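FORM 12-B: Structure-to-Sequence Request
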């Protein structure tokens, strides 16, 4: 995806987040950072013993993909810490990882659990990004470069208009994270999440 496509996806993500209601579920994100270069005393105190319980859980659909949002606060991505896991629904369906449950009109896992590689630009993998805008604005984003996302349940509406209706996500994540050009591995990320996808729209944050 080019820069223009990424900008469009980011805008769509922000707009969809602004229109989501609260999910029912839980999420926890932890990271062991090898590089402690976020100065103590900045917002929320740096990267040592990094963890948060998700205050917002949801999804955003955009051009055949879905991004799982496991955010520290219910806010726009550039205003909080947040884990984003992007899946290519079309590729997962074409590969047979997701199949159509005809009775419910939902895409579901063909086999449970299912492990997907954490990899950039792998259509049957998961693109993982951890934003640190709240904790470490000097280095606001790290990217998953190796690891696994294991799903016990994925249940998505075939039609994006059905977002939040009988949709569910359950899984775990472990991945090395990196930043910079060229990428430098800076830590290990772990997450666990289980939630009912929220309906939309809701016009204001509450």
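FORM 12-B RESPONSE
SEQUENCE OUT:
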């Amino acid at each position: 995806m080019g820069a223009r496509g990424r900008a469009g996806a980011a805008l769509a993500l922000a707009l969809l987040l602004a229109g989501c209601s609260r999910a029912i579920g839980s999420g926890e994100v932890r990271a062991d950072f090898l590089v402690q270069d976020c100065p103590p005393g900045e917002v929320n105190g740096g990267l040592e013993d990094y963890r948060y319980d998700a205050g917002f859980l949801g999804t955003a659909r955009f051009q055949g993909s879905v991004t799982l949002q496991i955010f520290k606060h219910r806010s726009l991505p550039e205003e909080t810490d947040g884990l984003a896991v992007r899946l290519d629904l079309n590729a997962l369906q074409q590969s047979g990882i997701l199949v159509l449950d005809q009775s419910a009109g939902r895409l579901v896992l063909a086999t449970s659990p299912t492990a997907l590689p954490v990899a950039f630009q792998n259509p049957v993998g998961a693109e993982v990004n951890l934003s640190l805008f709240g904790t470490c604005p000097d280095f606001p984003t790290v990217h998953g470069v190796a690891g696994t996302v294991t799903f016990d349940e994925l249940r998505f509406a075939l039609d994006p208009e059905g977002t939040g209706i009988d949709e569910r996500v359950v899984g775990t994540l472990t991945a090395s994270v990196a930043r910079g050009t060229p990428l430098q591995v800076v830590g290990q990320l772990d997450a666990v999440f289980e939630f009912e996808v929220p309906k939309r729209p809701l016009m204001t944050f509450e």
